[in-house]
Amino acid sequence: MPSNYDSRSRGRPLGITILCVLGFLGVFFSLVGMLGVIGRGGPFAVIGLAGLALVVAKGIVLTGLWSLQQWGYKWGIRLYALAAVLDLVTFSIVSLIIDVLIVAYIASKADHFR
């Protein structure tokens, strides 16, 4: 007998919750760090502003993931895939593995996003 139980009715997956909580902590500390870089002035201010824009974008994406929005899913995949490419370019192997696993996990939970 087929089930009428919709996978979206189960709520937010635990892994998405953990990802968002850790992500929001990272956004907070990165925000503080970027404001410190901006405060140094000169060319550091430009770098800090670019970093600040990325931190704000990550916060917005994490909000979309937290609320299980379709746009959060799409931009979450894009953001973490971009991070994986940057990790590949900078030879950050551990970060690359983590970002690829995050992309795979978010992709595996596609049915939870409306």
Q: What can you see in these coordinates?
A:
With 114 residues, this protein is mainly alpha-helical. Helices cover 75% and strands 0% of the residues. The protein has four helices and no strands. The protein has helices at 14-39, 43-66, 70-89, 93-108. Helix 1 (14-39) packs antiparallel against helix 2 and helix 3 (70-89) packs antiparallel against helix 4. The longest helix is centred in the N-terminal third of the chain and has 26 residues, at 14-39.
Average of pLDDT: 90
% residues in beta strands: under 5%
Q: Report how far apart the termini are.
A: 26 Å
Radius of gyration: 16 Å
Tally of helical runs: 4
- Written as H for each helix and E for each strand, in order along the chain, the element string is HHHH
Oligomer: single chain
Low-confidence stretches: none
User: Based on helices, strands and strand pairing, what is the structural class?
Assistant: mainly alpha
Count of DSSP strands: 0
Largest sheet composition: none
Choose one word for the global shape: globular
